[in-house]
Automatic annotation (TrEMBL), chain A:
InterPro entries documented for this protein: MetI-like, MetI-like_sf, UgpAE/MalFG_permease
Keyword tags: Cell membrane, Membrane, Transmembrane, Transmembrane helix, Transport
Predominant subcellular localization, coarse grouping: membrane
Domain of life: Bacteria
Lineage, broadest ranks: Bacteria, Bacillati, Actinomycetota, Actinomycetes, Actinomycetales
Topology term for the membrane: Multi-pass membrane protein
Protein name: Sugar ABC transporter permease
Transmembrane segments: 21-39, 83-108, 120-140, 172-199, 220-243, 278-301
GO CC annotations, alphabetized: plasma membrane
UniProtKB/TrEMBL annotation, chain B:
UniProt-recorded name of the protein: Probable sugar-binding periplasmic protein
Keyword line: Signal, Transport
Function: Part of a binding-protein-dependent transport system for a sugar.
Entry's family note: Belongs to the bacterial solute-binding protein 1 family.
Length: 310, 431
C-alpha cells in the first residue's frame, strides 16, 4: 500500500515539474553554453600564452602557463595604476550617486508642486547614452586654463571662481575622478527613482504611529525609514557598483584608450585585444569578473536568505 | 486619459513607420549587393571617413567605377583616430576568419603580425601582372618586401617629418619664416622667443601625434642611420642617443600646449592655422587642413623638415591588402589594380595631399599636383628614406602601441625621462 502511493507521487512529481523544465530548458542550455561555457573558455585562454596573432590563428602553438599571466599583470605598475583608478572611480561614483539620489528622493518625497517635472528633469540624463554625453563632457572638462580655457574652466573664470580651474582628466592621481562627475550626473536620477519608490513603499500609518508615539523627525528617519530603505540602498550599490566596474564607453569618449591618467582595467583589456594579446585580455576579463562577483555574490546570498525567510 | 491614449497611438504609429522605413532601405541594400542581378561587389575597409581622406577615397572610387563598371564598391569605413577603431574591428574579423575583401593598412612592419598569423595573401604575382616592379621606386619595394614576398599594394606615400608653422606668429616673435632653425637646439631657442611674444610655441595632440613628434626628434638626434638602427638592433634604445632625444622631447613638451593631448591631429593643428600657436609637427596630410581653411603658403604658413632632419624623408604609406579567404578575391584584385594604376594614384593623391607611390608619372600628370606635393616628390627621389614608427612602417603594431602608452605616461608627468627610456626599452624588447 505504502509502495503504491510512493509510485503515484513520483509520477505526479514528473507531471508537475516536467513541462516547466521542458519550457525553460532552451534558456538553460543557451545560458550554459553562452554564459558559463564562455566564462570557462575565457579562463582557459587567460592561462595560456597566446600573446600574438600567429597564435590566435593557430599558426603557432600556445602553451598552458597557469597563473603566470595574472602574476605578471599584478606585478606591472601600469596595471596597478589601472586598478587604483578603478577603485577611486567606483568609490566616488557610488558615494556621489547615493548621496545625490537620496537627497533628491527625500526632497521629492514631501508633497511639492510640479513633482512630475522635477522627476523628469532628474531622470532625463539617464536617457542619454554614455558615448553621447561623453562627447559633451569632453568639452566641458577641457584642461586648458587662462586665455584658451573652455568648458567648465571658462565658466569658473567668468563667474570669478578662477581658483577652481583645474586640469580635470589630465591629473595623474585624480584624473579618473573627473570622469566620475558625468557618471554621477547621469545615474543620480536612477538612484533617486529607486529611493523614491522606497519612500513611497513606506505606509503613512507607520510614520503617523511613530509621531503619535512622540518620535522626533530624526528618530522617525533613523528608526523607521532608514531600515526600510536598506534593501533599496543595497540594490543601488550593486547596480551602480557593477556599472562602474564595467565603465568603458564613458572613459573612451571623454579621454581615449591611451590616456594614462584615466586608464582602468576595461580599457587595458581593449588595448590588449587590439594587439592580439588574447591571453592578457582574457586575464584582465577574469580579474574583472572576480571583482564583480565579490560585489554581487554577497547580495545574492543575502537575497536568497531573505526569500527563504518568507 | 484620452489624451494619453492618443499619444500612445501616435508614438506607436511613428515607430511603426520608422521600422517600415528601416525595412525598406535594408531591402534596397540587399537588392544592390546581391549577386542576383549579376552585379559584383567588393567590400573595402578603410578609416578614411571624413575630410580630404574621404574625398580622396571618393575620387579613387570614381576611377574604379570607370575601370571596372561591373563591380560595385562597398564602403566599410570605420572612423576614428589614425585607424585605431578600424584596427580593433579588423583584428576580430580576421581572427574569426571573416575578412573583408581588402583592407587599408600602413605598409611595412605593421603588417608583420598579420603576415605571421597567415591572414594575408602574397600579392607578389600581382606586382608582375600589373607591371608594378618598374613603376614603384626600388626604395619603396625594399620596404614592402618581407622574406622575398610582398603583402600589400601602396596607394600613396606620406612624409611625417614636416613642421607646419604660422607665418604671422613667427614674424611677431622676430623670427624669419623663410629660415627655419638648422637643429633642435636652435629650434627650441626659437620656441622660447615665441613664448616670450605671448603665443603658444608648439601644439601636440593625442598619443600617436606625440609619437609622430618624438620619432622625428629621435631622427634628428640619431641621424638617419642611427634611427634606422633602432629597428634592427644596431642602435640601443637604452643608449645615450635616445637619452639625448628624450631630453629634447621633454624641453619641447614643456613649451607645448598640453591641453590638446586628448585631441586628434586636426584640433591640435587648429591653433597653428588660426594664429595662436607657432609650430606643429605633422605628416603632410596637414596640407589639406590648411587648404580647407583657405590659407596660402608662404603668406599664411610655412613648412619645412623637422630641424635636424633635412635631407631625410620619414616615410609612411597607405596600402591595400588581400586577406586569405576574402569572399570576392577577384573583385579585390580589380580594386588593387585601380589603387596601383596611374589614373587611380593621380586622382587619389591630388586630393589627399600625399604623393603617388609610382615614379613613372608623365609631366602632364605631375602638373596636376600642388607646389608642396611637387617638392615632396623631389625630396622622395633624392633624400635618405627612413621608416615612420607612428605610422606602422618601422615596427609591428603591438610595439608601436606600447611606445604610445609610454609617451602618454610621459606627457602627463607620470614618468620622468629615465622612466620613459626604461619603458621604451621594455616596449621594444617585448617582440
Amino acid at each position: 500500500m505504502a509502495k503504491k502511493t510512493k509510485a503515484v507521487s513520483s509520477k505526479s512529481k514528473i507531471s508537475s515539474w516536467g513541462p516547466g523544465l521542458l519550457l525553460i530548458s532552451p534558456s538553460i542550455i543557451l545560458v550554459g553554453v553562452f554564459v558559463y561555457g564562455m566564462i570557462g573558455a575565457n579562463i582557459i585562454t587567460s592561462m595560456k600564452d597566446t600573446h600574438t596573432a600567429a597564435q590566435v590563428s593557430g599558426r603557432k602553438p600556445s602553451d598552458f602557463v597557469g597563473f603566470s599571466n595574472f602574476g605578471k599583470l599584478f606585478a606591472d605598475p601600469d596595471f596597478q595604476h589601472s586598478l587604483i583608478n578603478l577603485l577611486l572611480f567606483t568609490v566616488v561614483f557610488l558615494v556621489g550617486t547615493l548621496l545625490i539620489g537620496f537627497l533628491w528622493a527625500w526632497l521629492l518625497d514631501r508633497p511639492i508642486k510640479g513633482e512630475g517635472i522635477f522627476r523628469s528633469i532628474f531622470m532625463f540624463p539617464m536617457a542619454i547614452s554614455f558615448v553621447a554625453s561623453g562627447v559633451v563632457w569632453r568639452w566641458l572638462l577641457n584642461p586648458a586654463k587662462g586665455e584658451t580655457a573652455s568648458g567648465l574652466n571658462r565658466l569658473f573664470q567668468q563667474v570669478g571662481l578662477g581658483f577652481l580651474q583645474n586640469s580635470w582628466t589630465q591629473n595623474i592621481t585624480f584624473g579618473v575622478v573627473a570622469i566620475a562627475l558625468p557618471a554621477i550626473w547621469q545615474l543620480s536620477g536612477y538612484v533617486m527613482a529607486l529611493f523614491l519608490a522606497g519612500f513611497r513603499g513606506i505606509p503613512d500609518e507607520l510614520r503617523e504611529a511613530a509621531r503619535v508615539d512622540g518620535a522626533t523627525e530624526w528618530q522617525l528617519y533613523k528608526q523607521i525609514i532608514f531600515p526600510q530603505l536598506a534593501p533599496i540602498a543595497l540594490s543601488a550599490v550593486i547596480i551602480i557598483g557593477h556599472m562602474s566596474l564595467k565603465s568603458f564607453d564613458l572613459i573612451m569618449s571623454i579621454t581615449d584608450q591611451r590616456t594614462y591618467s584615466t586608464k582602468v582595467p576595461a580599457i587595458d583589456m581593449f588595448n590588449a585585444m587590439t594587439d592580439n594579446d588574447y591571453s592578457n585580455a582574457a586575464a584582465i576579463g577574469t580579474i574583472l569578473l572576480v571583482i564583480v562577483a565579490i560585489f554581487v555574490v554577497p547580495y545574492l546570498i543575502h537575497d536568497s536568505k531573505e526569500s527563504a525567510k518568507r | 486619459m484620452r489624451r494619453n491614449a492618443l499619444a500612445i497611438g501616435l508614438v506607436a504609429a511613428m515607430s511603426l513607420s520608422l521600422t517600415a522605413c528601416g525595412g525598406s532601405s535594408e531591402n534596397a541594400d540587399s537588392g544592390n549587393s546581391g549577386s542576383g542581378d549579376g552585379k559584383q561587389v567588393v567590400d573595402v575597409v578603410t578609416w578614411w571617413s571624413a575630410g580630404s581622406e574621404k574625398e580622396g577615397l571618393d575620387a579613387l572610387v570614381k576611377v574604379f567605377n570607370e575601370q571596372f563598371p561591373k563591380v560595385e564598391f562597398v564602403n566599410k569605413a570605420i572612423a576614428g583616430g589614425g585607424g585605431s577603431q578600424a584596427k580593433q574591428k579588423l583584428a576580430t574579423d580576421l581572427a574569426a576568419k571573416n575578412p573583408p575583401d581588402t583592407y587599408q593598412a600602413h605598409a611595412g612592419a605593421e603588417l608583420q603580425e598579420a603576415i605571421d598569423a597567415g591572414y594575408l595573401e602574397d600579392v607578389s604575382s600581382l606586382y608582375d601582372e600589373f607591371k608594378l616592379r618598374d613603376a614603384f621606386p626600388k626604395t619603396l619595394l625594399d620596404r614592402l618586401t618581407v622574406d622575398g614576398k610582398i603583402y600589400s599594394i601602396p596607394t600613396n606615400i606620406h612624409r611625417s617629418n614636416v613642421v607646419w608653422a604660422n607665418t604671422e606668429v613667427l614674424k611677431a616673435a622676430g623670427l624669419d619664416p623663410a629660415k627655419p632653425a638648422a637643429d633642435l637646439d636652435g629650434w627650441i631657442a626659437d620656441m622660447e622667443k615665441v613664448k616670450a611674444a605671448g603665443k603658444t610655441p608648439i601644439t601636440v595632440g593625442m598619443a600617436w601625434t606625440q609619437l609622430n613628434l618624438f620619432e622625428n626628434i629621435l631622427l634628428a638626434d640619431l641621424g638617419a642611420e642611427g634611427y634606422s638602427g633602432l629597428f634592427d638592433g644596431k642602435t640601443d634604445w637604452g643608449g645615450d642617443g635616445v637619452k639625448k632625444a628624450i631630453e629634447h622631447y621633454g624641453k619641447i613638451l614643456d613649451l607645448a600646449d598640453k591641453s590638446l593631448a586628448n585631441e586628434d591631429w586636426e584640433p591640435a593643428m587648429k591653433p597653428v592655422i588660426e594664429g595662436q600657436a607657432a609650430y606643429n609637427v605633422m605628416g603632410d596630410w596637414a596640407l589639406a587642413a590648411f587648404n580647407a581653411a583657405n590659407k596660402k603658403s608662404p603668406e599664411d604658413y610655412v613648412y619645412f623638415p623637422t630641424p635636424g632632419t633635412a635631407g631625410t624623408f620619414n616615410f609612411l604609406a597607405d596600402s591595400f591588402t588581400l586577406p586569405v579567404g576574402a569572399p570576392h578575391p577577384d573583385n579585390a584584385k580589380d580594386w588593387l589594380q585601380t589603387c596601383s594604376s596611374k589614373e587611380g594614384q593621380v586622382a587619389f593623391n591630388t586630393i589627399k595631399g600625399s604623393i603617388p607611390a609610382r615614379s613613372d608619372l608623365s609631366a602632364d600628370d605631375l602638373a596636376k599636383f600642388s607646389e608642396y606635393q611637387q617638392s615632396a616628390m623631389k625630396d622622395f627621389a633624392k633624400d635618405t628614406i627612413v621608416s615612420s614608427i607612428a605610422h606602422g612602417a618601422a615596427l609591428p603594431a603591438p610595439v608601436s602601441n606600447s611606445i604610445n602608452d609610454a609617451l602618454g605616461k610621459f606627457i602627463q608627468g607620470a614618468s620622468d625621462g629615465a622612466q620613459l627610456q626604461a619603458d621604451l626599452v621594455k616596449a621594444t624588447a617585448s617582440k
